[in-house]
Specification:
heterodimer; A: alpha+beta; Beta-Lactamase; Arc Repressor Mutant, subunit A; five-stranded antiparallel sheet; 12 helices; 51% helix; elongated; B: 11 strands
């Protein structure tokens, strides 16, 4: 059987699963036949709506799991942070070139190696309107990443993640009234123009001049936008509009 | 509203077709840096933008402005997967009257155009068009990095072969099966059963 038909078989089985245990069984066999030792399909931690449904499925060694818990590595995970900067997959060796590592993040990478996780291949999963997620395949110390299989791993990872996501989504939430994050406030085109400029460091006076409107008007746009979000500062407003994809990081970068 | 633009009615859409090619240049050439032909320095247009192409175009209510679009090509004629990327299909390029190819899906790159509702309208239009015209399968060449987002929307996707590294990117051929259930899902999500496809100009031109 060709490699492609093996993966196609995995995908069609993953499309039919009805609970996460079935998916675990499927992954257990398949991830090893691809040449990896461990997998992790996870929605990342971060701005948490506590009762949001999240995918969290992995077979990392138990020691590593307890290290993560004890040292509270969840929010620092450099691999997760790197996912924020990338739509394309990367190996863990790439991570120091992708983000500036904090001391705690360096420590975490070293701790992962000590716990036996030698290297990994991570596929960032960006679904509009959802927290960032990823699918990671990793290998034990001393083994090599099967480079020629990475496109296939990426492909099957996407389907595996979607299978997990589908099961988690269809599980009734514990607190149904908290299931969905409220839909984000809508800002007008002018308000967005002002927020973008504010994100570039402009004062209301600068904004007024750039947009050729009165100072009072510019100020009012910013105040109205803050009110819609229920936040007090420009900083909060900029972060929230970025998070909701109302504005893009690219909007804020110098040309 | 999503209009169906064909060889027969395109004289009614000259302005928005021009806008579409301009927006496609901004997106695919300027932003995504695809190495594809540009006409007059400002329009993205290739060998498949012919009379055989059908465009589903999301327009503003006045039908004056291009908000987003997708190009459809029948798989029995020239099309991207069949002519340029056939090696992405493990078991041959799917062809048939009921198999059409999706290319150049885009939303207008302006801050006042919210991409998600436009994409939603185009997605619903693809289902309606498929069901109306007896299209069971859409094929496409996709960057694998978008696969998760496509799957999350609920499309019934299947890969047609191993993804390949082309330049810096990994692309793969995919088929999407269209059923009444797909359309139902999009309509439920939008809580509206009103068709998004506008067919009056097709009737006028016919």
């Amino acid at each position: 059987m060709s490699r492609f038909s093996e993966v196609a078989q995995f995908v069609s089985a993953a499309n039919r699963i009805t609970d996460l245990d079935e998916l675990r069984t499927l992954l257990d066999g398949f991830v090893r036949s691809l040449g990896f030792d461990y997998y992790a399909l996870v929605h990342h931690a971060g701005m948490v709506h506590a009762h949001e449904k999240r995918v969290h499925l992995h077979d990392f060694p138990e020691d590593w799991e307890s290290i993560i818990r004890e040292r509270n590595y969840f929010c620092d995970d450099p691999v997760h942070v790197a996912c924020q900067t990338s739509f394309v997959p990367f190996t863990w060796e790439d991570v120091p070139n992708m983000i500036a590592l904090s001391p705690k993040q360096r420590e975490m990478l070293a701790a992962a190696r000590e716990a036996g996780l030698g290297n990994g291949f991570t596929v960032p999963i960006h679904i509009p309107g959802e927290r960032i997620a990823s699918c990671t395949f990793s290998i034990k110390n001393g083994r090599k990443i099967p480079n020629e299989l990475l496109p296939m791993a990426q492909y099957m990872g996407c389907f595996a993640f979607e299978a997990a996501r589908r099961v988690v989504e269809s599980t009734p939430a514990k607190k149904p009234h908290l299931r969905r994050a409220p839909s984000p406030p809508r800002l007008t085109r002018r308000q967005l123009d002002c927020v973008v400029l504010a994100g570039q460091g402009k004062s209301d006076r600068d904004i007024a001049q750039i947009l050729d409107i009165g100072y009072e008007t510019a100020h009012q746009h910013m105040e109205d936008a803050k009110r819609k979000y229920g936040v007090a500062t420009r900083m909060q407003l900029i972060v929230r509009t970025l998070f909701d994809n109302h504005i893009a990081f690219a909007d804020l970068m110098p040309n | 509203m999503v209009d169906v633009v064909t060889a027969h009615n395109r004289h009614l859409y000259r302005d928005v077709i021009e806008q579409m090619h301009g927006d496609r240049k901004k997106i695919f050439v300027d932003q995504l840096k695809w190495d594809i032909p540009v006409v007059d320095g400002k329009y993205e247009m290739d060998q498949f933008d012919t009379d055989a192409a059908i465009y589903l175009m999301a327009l503003d209510p006045a039908r004056k402005r291009h908000m987003g679009s997708v190009r459809l090509l029948n798989s029995t004629g020239p099309h991207l997967l069949g002519d340029v990327f056939p090696y992405l299909c493990e078991n041959g390029v799917p062809r048939g009257d009921d198999v059409w190819e999706i290319t150049r899906l885009c939303t207008a790159p302006y801050r006042d155009v919210e991409p998600r509702p436009v994409r939603g309208r185009i997605a619903t239009a693809l289902c309606e068009f498929g069901l109306l015209y007896g299209i069971n399968t859409y094929t496409c060449v996709a960057h694998i990095q978008w696969l998760s987002a496509l799957l999350a929307v609920g499309w019934e996707c299947e890969m047609l072969g191993e993804p390949r590294q082309v330049g810096n990117e990994v692309i793969g051929a995919m088929s999407i099966t269209i059923t009444a259930a797909t359309l139902q899902m999009f309509r439920d999500r939008k809580k509206s059963r009103i068709p998004v496809l506008q067919l009056d100009h097709i009737a006028e031109a016919a």
